[in-house]
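User: Some background: our group keeps a shared notebook of sequences we're curious about, and every so often someone picks one and asks for a predicted structure to add to the entry. Today it's my turn. The entry only has the sequence so far, pasted here. Could you supply the structure so I can complete it?
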Amino acid sequence: MGTDIARDVTEAAAKAREASVQLRLAPRERKDRALLAVARLLRQGQAALLEANALDLEAARGRLSPAMFDRLRLDARRIEAMAAGLEQVAALPDPVGAVLSDQRRPNGLRLQKVRVPLGVVGIVYESRPNVTVDAAGLCLKSGNACVLRGGSESVHSNVALGAVIRAGLAEAGLPADCVAVVATPDRAAVDALLKLDRLIDVIIPRGGHGLIRHVIENSTIPVIRHDAGNCHVYVDAAADLGMAAEIAYNAKVQRPGVCNAMEHLLVHQAVARGFLPVILDRYRRAGVELRGDEAVRAIDPAVLAATEQDWSEEYADLIAGIKVVPGLDAAIAHINRYGSQHSDAIVTADAPAAERFLAEVDSAAVYWNASTRFTDGFEYGMGAEIGISTQKLHARGPMALEELTSVKWIGRGDGQVRS
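Assistant: Of course. Here's the predicted structure to add to the notebook entry:
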């Protein structure tokens, strides 16, 4: 690892650590003022942000899949969405200082459990420049400094966004070093970041399986992660097939490169012959590559044969795996075996079947008659998200303000001693 890279990353994290002390004690009004300032500066600086993003797009052209290329792209609508997300975060209650429990012990000692910031959050991510703004905004509101290391493919965009964020912090009277953007595209910066357990309190990776595994296996800092977004839609025997087609199409096609997009469609054998020709035709017209089991191929021989490996894949692209199942039990068993515990949906008019699915599918988010695409901090009213956690310790599902806090116990007495 280059000593200059390690030194630069360490210096940025040290400055963030120092700044976190002031941010931790900042009142809500000042944090909200910073968020609103960043939102305004994003809108005012749109031209410069698009120019920086154009450099990344040009360098990535032909090297990324269409879905990943779309994740990298900024436009006026996405910049406005980032600004609006910050405004929504500013309007949310401040989690810091919230009292979770308040009790008076028999000896008169008063004990309170209150929310406090995690401290310094390191975030390692790929492709999507909007993560820079979402992560910085949520960390700021929850009183955390952050060190952000985006993918090499988005370095110009992230540096430009980081400059806007730091300007908004300074305008509101908060240390600009509360947000550090690691500017080097060299992957050695990630390895340096993962060893700074004396400066960074938690690491959150967002990206493909390779990045997540690298972070898990090399970090000396606690990691909150999602391993993959292998999401399913199950069309039950009692489904409204028109509704099922809309949900299955939206979940796969609306934005295929994101982690809450459907990767695999399961169809009850009782409705397969009536449903599959309709949805397969819609998928083909949208450019989706189809991979199915033998029952699917018996209905449509043009579908490619799925392999055993397919059922575990997160394609993050216009590819769908499709399987006919004998019933609800088989659908639940398939999802719990092959899924990534991210987001899964059932389409059915059978309420008891739906309730079984919601209870028995072991995922962070489960849906009845709705698209998996709703697993998103903005859609959940959180303002934005810092990631979707599929693990079960500390946080699960969309991570936003509350998930970026820990707790502190405060005791107030009048001379009590333990006997």
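Suggested note for the entry: The domain at 3-225+391-412 is CATH 3.40.605.10 (Aldehyde Dehydrogenase; Chain A, domain 1). The chain has two domains: 3-225+391-412, 231-374.
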